[in-house]
Design brief:
The complex is a heterodimer of chains A (203) and B (226). With 203 residues, chain A is α/β, with parallel strands linked by helices. Chain A has 2 domains: 1-85, no CATH class; 117-203, no CATH class. Chain A has helices at 6-15, 18-26, 34-48, 54-69, 77-86, 90-105, 152-167, 184-192; strands at residues 110-116, 127-134, 137-144, 173-178, 197-199. Chain B has 226 residues and is an alpha+beta fold. In chain B, strands 1, 2, 3, 4, 5, 6, 7, 8, 9, 10 and 11 form an 11-stranded antiparallel sheet that branches. In chain B, helix 1 (14-26) packs antiparallel against helix 2 (65-73). The chains are: A alpha/beta (203), B alpha+beta (226). The A-B interface holds A 43, 46-47, 50, 86-89, 91-92, 94-95, 116, 119, 121-127, 144-146, 148-149, 151-154, 156-157, 160, 188-189, 192-193 and B 1, 35-37, 39, 41, 43, 47-48, 50, 52, 54, 56, 81-83, 85, 87, 96-98, 100, 102, 115-118, 147-153, 168, 210-214, 216.
Chain lengths: 203, 226
């Protein structure tokens, strides 16, 4: 990691505590190639040098480690890691990082992340970020780190797609999950339209 | 979501928006077509006043884009959002395309977006990107760029655009080109850099999406962006 990333890797290693460094070096989720894991390690150093805090990276690494070391098979974890390894800016990293955080917090119920679906005729979503089985109900979640990249139009369009999935019996419930939600316009829109949502940092 | 955002500053009027959508249709946009429902929603400040119209069934209804323009014009453009779900068609595919017009600080953003997996399914990403490229060349925009995953929306001022570029895909207006330097942009180590008919510049950082960080970094270094 240090050799491949020049000074960026050295700084990254110096910033992390011993436990986090060990975790980064030991994670070996099933179905993920060693070259992808090498890319992930290099990319985490790059992201740390380009606006992603070391605490956020530590959180991500711990979450992935937890998901990889559970006995349970979480479909899509390999793809989530590949996307994280390719993320070339903070905005592309926080999506999969938040999905990993949500999945790790719901280990008992999570069955898949980034679940590929046939795109509903409403046009969105293209996949379900997290699928859980809760009391024999299938729950699909659309996960966002925050509302900074989201418009109210996005919420309406995605919600229409999830309602179609409900009607088709592909899921029994759906929700939006935000890691943080400070935008009052977005909150008002969700509430006025009866769109179910939860905020991780308010739990 | 993968989308291309184009920013501008003057309040969108009926004639402008109609011409933009007419150009979009000329470059492959259809309404209620290719297996995807057409829908439009106009969302004013007060969400309970939202207008939602959805068209399903066999008949293509591209003519309904005119209704969307009329519905949007009945609200205050400085605060209302327009979000349309359309279908982008080319020789090989039909993919859902969300066209949105949203007010932002100091201006507005017009965007063309689709799901990541549909973007990947096209294979040739320049096909879909040709749509916003044509719109950017034809109309007067400040800046344009891709917004992938949870990247922030693009800025609407030249000054802020100078601190935002380059992204995976970037459209430089002639004014922005003059600020940054035409020669410098055209000699960037990107997969594609080309001049546009409106004296702007189009830049595709790498042939695949997402481009790796090192490639974007090398362009940044070339352009002396700290």
């Amino acid at each position: 990691m240090v050799a491949d990333t020049d000074g960026v890797g050295v700084r990254f290693v110096e910033e992390l505590d011993e436990n986090s460094l060990k975790t980064i070096l030991k994670i070996e989720p099933e179905g993920v190639s060693t070259s992808t894991l090498s890319s992930l390690r290099r990319n985490l150093a790059y992201l740390n040098n380009n606006g992603v805090s070391k605490d956020r990276i530590k959180r991500f690494v711990d979450d992935v480690d937890q998901l990889a070391s559970t006995n349970k098979d979480v479909d899509g974890l390999d793809e989530l890691i590949e996307r994280s390894a390719e993320a070339n800016n903070p905005g592309s990293f926080v999506g999969p990082a938040t999905e990993a955080e949500y999945a790790a917090k719901n280990l008992d119920t999570i069955t898949a992340v980034r679940d590929d679906i046939d795109t509903p005729s409403a046009g969105r979503p293209g996949d379900i970020d997290a699928v859980e089985t809760i009391d024999s109900e299938v729950v699909g979640s659309e996960i966002k780190n925050s509302a900074q990249s989201v418009t109210r139009g996005d919420l309406g369009q995605i919600s229409a797609g999830y309602r179609e999935l409900l009607d088709n019996g592909e899921i029994d419930r759906y929700q939006f999950v935000f890691r943080e939600l400070t935008d009052s316009e977005i909150r008002d829109y969700l509430e006025q339209n009866d769109i179910p949502y939860t905020v991780l940092n308010e739990r | 979501m993968f989308r291309i955002e184009l920013s501008f500053t003057s309040t969108p009027d009926r004639g402008w928006l109609t011409r933009v959508l007419f150009s979009a249709v000329a470059h492959g946009i259809r309404f209620n077509s290719g297996g995807f429902e057409g829908s439009y929603r106009v969302i004013p400040t007060e969400p309970s006043d939202e207008i939602v119209v959805t068209e399903s069934g066999e008949l293509e209804r591209t003519d309904m884009l005119v209704d969307a323009v009329e519905a949007y014009m009945s609200f205050d453009q400085e605060s209302a959002e327009l979000a349309m779900m359309t279908t982008y068609t080319d020789e090989n595919s039909n993919i859902p395309c969300s066209i949105q017009l949203t007010p932002h600080t100091f201006g507005y953003v017009l965007s063309f977006g689709t799901n990541q997996k549909e973007m990947e399914s096209i294979g040739d990403l320049t096909s879909f990107v040709g749509l916003p490229k044509a719109i950017f060349e034809r109309f007067d925009f400040v800046y344009g760029a891709s917004q992938v995953d949870e990247q922030q929306h693009i800025p609407t001022t030249i000054g802020d655009a100078q601190g935002d570029h380059p992204r995976a895909i970037t459209f430089y207006s002639s004014e922005l080109v003059n600020k940054i330097g035409r020669k410098e942009l055209l000699s960037s180590p990107a997969a594609v850099v080309s001049e546009l008919s409106n004296e702007g510049i189009f830049m595709l950082a790498s042939a695949e999406l997402p481009p790796n960080g090192e490639q974007v970094q090398s362009i940044r270094e070339h352009l002396n962006i700290v």
